Amino acid sequence: MRFRKTLTFLILATGLAFHHSAWAQQKPFTQDQVQGMVRSGLGDESGTKLVEQRGIDFDPREDFLQILKSAGANEAFLEALRSAKRSLAKGQSAKAPLNELEIITLLAGQVPSHRVAILVKERGIDFDVKDDYLKDVRLGGGDDELVTALKSAKVTMSVTVPAASPQAAQPAVDPQTVTVYVTKTGKKYHREGCRSLSRSKIPMTLKEAKAKGYTPCSTCRPPQ
Question: How far is it, in rounded angstroms, from Cα 207 to Cα 64?
Fold first, then answer.
């Protein structure tokens, strides 16, 4: 294992020495590549140097860092990921605020309450903090620092655009020019193609249909 680790690092280091300019142009490490480095035994100071030089293209969340730590990454490697300059694509949206479940999940994953508090301060939250939720946070291992961070966090709510009602979605119509259809026996008027017109189909204007007391079909929803 030690030989494999040394060989892997020597290959990377040799490439760095002889192709410095090309190395500088290489893309930052992806999340999968970072996991591969740790599996190969480079989750230490040697891998730390590589991360510092190339950077990363993702946001290393605490739950991901805990997985790396369990796989053998040391604290220096994890700290390099936290502080790495992220070469994110231009125009990429800002980090999304944390939701209620994410915070509880981080605590359940043994992420230190101090680190969760930092995330809350950096990213904000997307919910209103209630006393019952703060009790759950404390039960999950959250300390006073995290509770204070939640109370003072920037809240960014998701914006939901209400759906327009069928009535409001219909464009304005001229009752004198719009044609609807009635049947010989029914008291409803319909759009063309409505299944209720299978036996009889009598055309007339919308104005005429209303004048005769016909009401709109609830199935085909003709103009009103």
Answer: 66
Residues near 144 by Cβ (< 8 Å), separated by ≥ 6? none
Give the pLDDT confidence of 1-53 residue by residue, as tens digits: 554 554 454 445 444 444 444 444 467 888 888 998 898 888 898 888 888 88
Rounded average pLDDT over 178-197 = 87
CA distances from 121 to 115, 137, 151 (A): 10, 16, 10
Residue that wins the pLDDT comparison between 158 and 190: 190
Cβ neighbours of 51 (radius 10 Å): 24
Whether residue 104 contacts residue 137, with contact meaning beta carbons closer than 8 Å, is answered with: yes
Beta-strand ranges (E) seen in the chain are 179-182, 188-190, 202-205, 215-216
Rounded-to-integer distance, Cα 153 and Cα 122, Å: 9
Core vs surface per residue 123-142: b (16+ CB within 10 A) or e: bbbbbebeeeeeeebeebbb
CA–CA dist 56, 28 (Å, integer): 5
Of the CA atoms within 13 Å of residue 200, those in its CB half-sphere come to: 9
- Relative to beta strand 179-182, strand 202-205 is antiparallel
